[in-house]
Amino acid sequence: MKNIGRRIATIVVALFVILGGSFSTSFVQSFAVVSKSTVIIHYQKGKNDSKDWNIWFFPEGKEGKAYPFNGEDAFGKIATITVEGAIKKAGFIVRTDAWEKDGGDRTITLSGGEGEVWVKSGDEKTYSEPPDGEYRETPAYKNIDVTVHYNRYDGQYDGWNLWAWPEHGKGKAIPFTEKDAFGKVAKMKWNDLQNVHKVGMILRKSVKGNEWEQKEFGDRFITRFQEDGSAEVWIAQGQERVFYDASDLDISPKIISSNIDSFHRMTVETNIPFDTEKHGLSLSGKVRIQKVVPVNGQKVTNKVYVYTKKEWDLTKTYKISKKNFGTAKASIGKVVRSKAFDQRFFYKGKDLGNTYSKKKTSFKLWAPTAAQAELIMYDHWNDKKGHVRKMKRGEHGTWKAEVKGNQAGRYYTYKVNVAGGSNEAVDPYAKAVSVNGDKGAIIDIAKTNPTHFTKRMPSFSPQKAVIYELHVRDASIHPKSGIKHKGKYLGVAQENTTGPKGVKTGLNHIKDLGVTHVQLLPIYDYQTVDETKLTKPQYNWGYDPKNYNAPEGSYSTNPYKPAVRIKELKTMVKGLHHNNMRVIMDVVYNHMFSAQQSSFHKLVPGYYFRYNEDGTLSNGTGVGNDTASERKMMSKFIVDSVSYWAKEYNLDGFRFDLMGILDVKTMNAVRKSLNKIDPSIIVLGEGWDLNTPLDPNVKANQKNAKKMENIAHFNDQLRDGLKGSVFENVDKGFVNGQSHKEAAIKEGIKAGIDYPSSIASYQQPTQVISYVEAHDNLTLWDKLTLTNPTASVTERKQMHKLASSIVLTSEGISFIHAGQEFMRTKDGDHNSYKSSDAVNQLDWQRAYEFQAENNYVKGLIALRKTQPLLTLSTAKAIRKSVSFIQAPANTVVYSLRGENQKDLLVIHNANRQAVTVTLPTKGTWRVLVDGKQAGTKTLATVKGKQVSVSAISTFVLQRK
């Protein structure tokens, strides 16, 4: 190691000469660049576990990738992962290739380019030290002898020293006492130590009267020693990492990045600062530099703006050079995310994608930064080589081609030459795709319509909706579902099916329940189920988009034939419509499975996704990327895509996943486009306020609901008020034992129209989804099991029924999760997006066993559909009709009054004992819901001034 250090030191001396002999004290950046970061993940498998586990690793703000375990010690498996660049934080998942997970998403924090953690099977905690001391493989040292080499590119070493300490020991100042060609050298020794595995140190500057006048970074640790406890390390100014091999420091001067920010500006960064007044930069081609401006305002710096008078041609490749620093290719950076780019290249046309006829097929692609575009035609889905046809440049960054003759049955992709290379990609507008969605398909889509398919459902008032959230596979995959096409679109469409002891299943069950809308988890083509291996059980919710405009193939009977999945999906929609149920599609335009692998990024790099100021992908979604709906062509794509699905598949609604990532303008454009098709199409979404670099005033979240008319948001305030926070397993709410929740429940009952602006700005009940359970997080039954472990099954049933009762008697749009009616359980799995069928399937045996509870929810739905006072259409009507009445603690009582309608009285008692409630008026009242039964028929009559309401129950009374 010492010899390597001397060789590098020689280069440093030479570098001083090249750059003028000395460094300015104003330098703030290091000449050395950390080229790599390393993490070590230890994993202890469970006993008798034969699964092939690996690590899905994703540096913060970047794409994820699978890494194998490549070592082993007494604790278990070891994955040593080295990635490019200096990263501070990363996420990782212990998983199999089939996406079975051991625990959830975990994080690791790196210091100095290194990090190490320990994970035990079945344990959600991530340990920074071995959880059991005997498993520590690192030997303990009695004597420590460390040599630290330190280089400052500014040459100013005065006052700099180390504060160092052995593990568990006291710290002391360590001066730099020697000098070598690399820089300064410090020596530190400790003897007669016990149980020491590492040494900590802080690089600091001391001045008279202040030993801690300045420090560079925080704690750094030396963890690698020779057998005798000796170590030699290198550190450099501006770099946090501790180097055990001096060759890891790259000190040769170079341009490390050059990105075009606008049509007249480029940002250039070097690894070594230089004098900007004598910058020596030059550009290739006919573009000349107008001026060079330091980013940080300092004369000597390593990051500058380069301005040009002539515009960049984004289809060309430019090179920037500097003497002694070499030459670098310019990358297209922020310019594609600028307003000027959108104004210049926005394309309004409706003909993107392929347009088929028997005589010819036309193709149009938007790729404004491409120097060349080609259409690649394939005869078969698995062809490796296709027929190449050059595309012609069109208006506003488009490319077009036309192929004569009937091309139905063939496949295609686009290939573009962009800065950085050549990319082949599926058409983002492809309406049909090959198996696994790797190629677009050309079909006569008119032939995919089932008979009598083109008619839309009658108009519908959204506040009357009762939405039933369903996963296609869950509906039928149970072995006793009685459904032929298990896990398929056709399975959802099959009528008159029964299961254990004749219980109704699938469509038969949902129809009998009485819901108005079936909301399907993603049915577009998604990434993580391999359609060529469907004989092997595979499961995913589908929140990993690949091709937005084509159906998922794993739900079809033949994913190899592009038209089959389309026709079978339409058959499913027709079947639901025939049984008087509308269909809502869950859409995920907020992110993709992978930004880098997406067609969007391959065709127009850097445009379709949202980036942080430092150029990394934003990650408000938590999956590594956020789409940039504020850009005109991304917004247009979303509007075009939703409109296409509504028209082609006769869909009746769209549920926007993580809608808060998108922007208000785009969502209003979606609403406007759908209004032209059918104003009663429901638009709803998750209006969470997410951490994405978008102006808070334009985020499509609950706080901005007032800016989005007739777009509904999930009311998480009511959800958590009912059962407790979904982020804390044992947190309780109104129904399961938490006191003083009445106010939260009352606001939810009124559809949140009086929430403070800090929560939401709902203007009308049609903007609010009332719910207590969805596919995400624990089911309500599992939440109640965790929060009330000593409660009897009967008590938990009553809590569950109380929660469902409140949802179905609240104003706004009602929403229930499939199986909620028979108290669905996933055995505590709070994130079953890729869990087995055994966890996710609708359990028809349970449906039989919980028939009484199912019938209770069925009765509530029937009541809601026949009582207009429960589905008021305006905030004005709610304020006029809903009156809360004084009631005992942990009880909510309210009356509903309307012109020419019989008054209703609703009582929700969360107490573990009966309560007596005073009736608002004298007379005779019909009991329609009594905690055991619900419906439209009279269960009993109440006369007098009071009514006794049983423990943990809802009563609904109607005045005669």
TrEMBL record:
The alphabetical list of record keywords is: Calcium, Glycosidase, Hydrolase, Signal
Organism field? Fictibacillus macauensis ZFHKF-1
User: Per its UniProt record, what InterPro entries does this chain match?
Assistant: Carb-bd-like_fold, CBM41_pullulanase, GH, GH13_cat_dom, Glyco_hydro_13_N, Glyco_hydro_b, Ig-like_fold, Ig_E-set
Residues of the Glycosyl hydrolase family 13 catalytic domain:
495-864
Catalytic activity reads: Hydrolysis of (1->6)-alpha-D-glucosidic linkages in pullulan, amylopectin and glycogen, and in the alpha- and beta-limit dextrins of amylopectin and glycogen
Query: What is this protein identified as?
Result: pullulanase
Q: Taxonomic lineage per UniProt?
A: Bacteria, Bacillati, Bacillota, Bacilli, Bacillales
The kind of enzyme this is, by top-level EC class, is hydrolase
**Stored Gene3D superfamilies:** 2.60.40.1110, 2.60.40.2320, Glycosidases, Golgi alpha-mannosidase II, Immunoglobulins
The GO annotation for biological process reads:
carbohydrate metabolic process
Q: Cross-referenced SUPFAM superfamilies, in alphabetical order?
A: (Trans)glycosidases (SSF51445), E set domains (SSF81296), Starch-binding domain-like (SSF49452)
Q: Is Hydrolase set as a keyword in this record?
A: yes
